[in-house]
Amino acid sequence: MIIDFSATNFRSFLDEQTISMNVEGGRSRHLTNYATIENERLAILRSAAILGANASGKSNVLMAISALRWIVVSSGGRKDGQSIPTYEPFRLSETSKKSPVVFEVEFVVSSGLRYRYYVSFLKERIIEEKLFSLSRRSRALVFERGAEDTWETLKFGGTYKGGSRRFSFFPNASYLSRAGNDASAPEFVREIYNYFRDFNYIPAGNRLMSSKALSRDSTMKAVSDLICLADTGVAKVTMEENEKAGDLRLPEGMPEDIKEAILEQNSMTAKFWVKTQSGELVSFESEDMSDGTVRLLEVLPVILKAFSRGSVLMMDEMDAHFHTDLVDLVLKLFHDEEINAKNAQLIFTTHDTNVLNSESLRRDQIWFASKLDGSSSLRSLDEYDKRLVRPDSPFETFYRDGRLGGLPRVSYAKVKNTILRALDGFKNLERNSVDA
Fold it and tell me: Is residue 56 exposed (0-12), middle (13-18) or buried (19+ Cβ within 10 Å)?
């Protein structure tokens, strides 16, 4: 579970911005919305919602966490001299464009051990990398790497025990990525690596069909049943071999891992079966079904995987994937201690103000993104004056009234004048074409 995550100089985040999943007070409210660790000394939220206007930076929170995942999981395989694709500094400042991107995260792995990881990097090299193990109030160094360090001069703390510790890597790779993917590394390093590998990010609008996940009978049966229960009008869903998959032609030179992913995604096709008035079943292709029904088929396996592994799921524009009632249902599932027994987390962005419900979410689960002079900032509802925003306040009403920020600042008068000028332009074009 993520306890807190910070990003500095990444995309629209110029200054350090932090999203915290740590419950600092009010534990008596919505008891199942959080899990406790270390003999209940710490409480960690199972979900968090991020709202804000378009281009406010909501999605960049999820992209930053996803970028951190790439550093930990994939950078270890970089060749010498290759750039780091997740280096996306704030571009509206001459200083920041050449400064490091910085990520820092505190997290708990499935074994219950707690760590804090810090990484700072430029386009072609990692500047600094640190890992600390945390136990109650003490902090112990696991490893540390400075700007001048190489794989041979990396420093290790006394908590680094078992297995190999020295692995060769280039400056553009993280030590954690290189060591975590090596069988000779200590078990705790590989556990951290696998923790980040299990992160899932669902971008807005992307197709996610995973034939591999849906090829398992148990998963397919559960997904089919859930789609039927969602009042979609579907009686069952099946996956069949795609007869047209052999006609797929991919460009030469495409990386093999991308080829494999595309071929795997297109190897099977979904069939949605609907009952006729006489009770017979008729099959429909994905393109014949509503977008919401198809999205359910794509997203449900990812949600089930999160529950089975206790992993972090990030979903951009969750309301674009689900009807508002299904958004509420998904939140209930993540807050259900029986279903979410392994403490999976859901961090999502949304424009759906229906989630601003004090009956289902705590104040510390709601975050607002805003932007000023091109720079985004994050603020939790829990940071507002608690005399004005109580745990049982009508969050949605306050938000729509503009009391909490995060709303689009749009001048209707200016929008109207712009459209009128455009319409005048169209009239002139039509007049000139007639005269010609």
Answer: buried
